[in-house]
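ok posting inputs for the 4'-deoxy-4'-aminopyridoxal-5'-phosphate job
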Amino acid sequence: AWANVPQGPPDPILGVTEKFKADPSPNKINLGVGAYRDGKGNPFVLPSVKKAEKQLVRAGANHEYLPITGLASFNKLAAELAYGKDSAPLKEGRLAITQSISGTGALRIAAAFLGRFYPESKTIYVPTPTWGNHIPLAKDSGLEVKHYKYFDKSTVGLDFEGMKADIEAAPEGSIIMLHACAHNPTGVDPTESQWKELSEIIKQKKHFPFFDMAYQGFASGDIVKDAFAVRYFVEQGHQLLLCQSFAKNLGLYGERVGAVSFVCADKEEKARVDSQLKIIIRPMYSNPPIHGARIVSAILGDEKLYNDWLSEVKKMADRIISMREKLYTNLVKLNTPGEWGHIKSQIGMFSFTGLTPEQVDKLAEKASIYMTRDGRISMAALNKKNIDYFAKAVSQAVKG
Ligand code: PMP
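and the output
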């Protein structure tokens, strides 16, 4: 039956892990995966998550179905975390929100909703580069994907002029996808004043802002600071949509906990949007998984656990930031040719090193160090034990 099915290419990120696994070297490092690792290189279960799970077991939680849009307490708390308790759409009861299968599922529901109901455009503009999965998921949902400039290779920073020009040049009413914080893969974010300019341009052009926030708290260690763009756009009256993921900031990768929300004009509009979200979700997966949503709800809804969690996110973010500083210092000490300031200034889990595909190949071959060929590294994979080895290998690869 499947004689005409062509062989597809492997996933570029998961392919890195395959090669890493096959390498027998004791020094090998996998910088490809976007999952946090502790100071010893191990996966990390947050203490607040462990406590919440114990509470759930003790309470004898059942395994009944959730409603189509998920756990109500989770949705309320997720919205408050992103928008702030005092946010006008929340207070006025005009935020339509549903639980989703993590951030990817949120994006998929959002794209399907836009494909069905957004009247102005079926074109979504994403930054160049963007998280690889944005493109196929938008296309599979029936949207056309176009790009706006984002990254400037020569400065290893933001091409703000190019970004503004491209967003301005997009036909009125276009969908503009924005990474709310900790842009993946570059680690380069607009500043607060640049966000303000972007809000103005998007408003003038009547574009639709589509925020993907997969790293709230993980970028700076401060959940409010990381939500700046989203909250500012809402204050400015944008009827945006927002995708949230709890994979990184709560370390709940495999639990698949996320949310997608739409700021609506009023309660009546919210009710109509809610009804269509249910109609999209029901034939897709019926209803979301319960366990992770309960964990998030238990943490965000309890003052003590919430505060514990805030300090745990900050610790994860700070460890990553300290690795940035150490890597920068080492590269400079080793007289590595080039400018390495971006390693320190980039934000979040990833760094776009500026290494060329040839240098990436050489690092794999000579030093058993694995990363995607675009030179993106997960800073979370670095620790006190491997950072000197890594810096030396990079320095040698750059020196040629
Ligand atoms: N958006 C971005 C920008 C991401 O980097 C990721 C995770 N790599 C996601 C969304 C979604 O991840 P998940 O489905 O695991 O929440």
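notes: The radius of gyration is 21 Å. The longest strand covers residues 95-101.
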